[in-house]
Design brief:
Peroxisomal Thiolase, Chain A, domain 1, alpha/beta, five-stranded mixed sheet, 319 residues, binds oxa(dethia)-CoA, 10 helices, four-stranded mixed sheet, 2 domains
């Protein structure tokens, strides 16, 4: 019998503190109008001084467990996508496991920057399909605000903090139809945090991005991943009920929607309220649209993301 993984529940969490474009006008040489017109962002949430990435992840995970009607002890795999782990090690997945008071199951982080959640879902899906796991907690959580140089208007106006989670369970019907992952490290200099452990922490500890160049590659690459995903499934554009894109820039999202011939009311957009929350953006958007009743059981969803590395990928699923 073929085993598939199905979404049993979704959850999310946003820090209380909100930073509006107006607030940023007082911090850096920018305007509300520029940010709205070039990115679609109106505001973003920012973690408090004592709030960590694992704090956000724990809240989203408990929220997803409640939605699925499950207990932490039902989980037998934790995959956490983050670019902003609380510590170098243990992994954030292990720290989350400790918070949830569960013991012994596999727990590890996936680092694929803004494509992290797509990578994490793809990995968990393979664990479930091979019969290794039956119930996976997959989290995308970020405190990107800690990687920002608040004087750099090219990045500081774009990003926010948050977390989203899904519970994937083994099922004899799909579920996840297919996942597609790619990367090309040749683009490493266009979007990076130069400092690291291996280089003696030399270089800036803040995010650096050549935004315009990233934008151009993102639009063409996301167009290609949409084609690849539909072709692999033998589907066409009309089979997609909802697009849940990574939320970096409304103009990138609109370009992918046009490629799919999808009206914007079939696209889940949160970039206006959350900014770019990297690995958290897709599960945050997914949870929002499930909770407000837009996404219903049986509908076909396409998730796609693009980010530092470069990395990019997609998940096609029946909810
Ligand atoms: O999630 C991971 C992947 N990341 C992305 O997908 C981000 C992709 N990139 C983008 O979303 C866009 O490129 C940005 C939003 C980052 C920038 O928008 P853009 O339309 O590509 O602007 P630009 O970089 O070409 O800059 C246009 C102008 C420049 O001024 P000049 O040279 O024309 O005088 C910038 O200096 O806008 C200026 N500018 C700003 N002005 C006000 C750049 N940032 C700002 C700012 N406020 N925050």
């Amino acid at each position: 019998m073929t085993i598939f993984s199905r979404v049993l529940g979704t959850g999310s969490y946003l820090p209380e503190k909100v930073l509006t474009n107006g607030d940023l006008e007082g911090m850096v040489d920018t305007t509300d109008q520029w940010i709205r017109e070039r990115t679609g962002i109106l505001k973003r949430h920012v973690a408090g001084p004592d709030e960590t990435c694992v704090d956000l992840a724990e809240a989203a995970a408990r929220n997803a467990l409640d939605a699925a009607g499950l207990k932490p002890t039902d989980i037998d795999l934790i995959v956490m996508a983050t670019t902003t782990p609380d510590q170098v090690f243990p992994s954030s997945a292990c720290l989350l496991q400790q918070r949830l008071d569960i013991h012994g199951c596999a727990a590890f982080d996936v680092q694929a920057v803004c494509t992290g959640f797509v990578y994490a879902v793809a990995v968990a899906d393979k664990f479930i399909r091979t019969g290794t796991s039956k119930c996976a907690l997959v989290v995308g959580a970020e405190t990107l605000s800690r990687l920002l140089n608040w004087e750099d208007r090219g990045t500081s106006v774009l990003f926010g903090d948050g977390a989203g989670a899904v519970i994937l369970g083994a099922s004899d019907e799909p579920g996840i139809i297919s996942t597609h992952l790619h990367a090309d490290g040749a683009y490493k200099d266009l979007l990076q945090v130069p400092a690291g452990i291996g280089n003696g922490q030399r270089g800036s500890p803040f995010m650096e991005m050549r935004g315009n160049e990233v934008f151009r590659v993102a639009v063409t690459t996301l167009g290609r991943i949409v084609d690849e995903t539909l072709e692999a499934a033998g589907m066409d554009q009309a089979d997609i009920d909802w697009l849940i894109p990574h939320q970096a820039n409304i103009r990138i999202i609109q370009a992918t929607a046009r490629k799919l011939n999808l009206p914007m009311d079939r696209v889940v957009v949160t970039v206006d309220e959350h900014g770019n929350t990297s690995a958290a953006s897709i599960p945050l958007a997914f949870d929002q649209a499930v909770r407000d009743g837009r996404i219903r059981r049986g509908e076909t969803l396409l998730m796609e993301a693009f980010g530092g590395g470069f990395t990019w990928g997609s998940v096609l699923l029946t909810y």
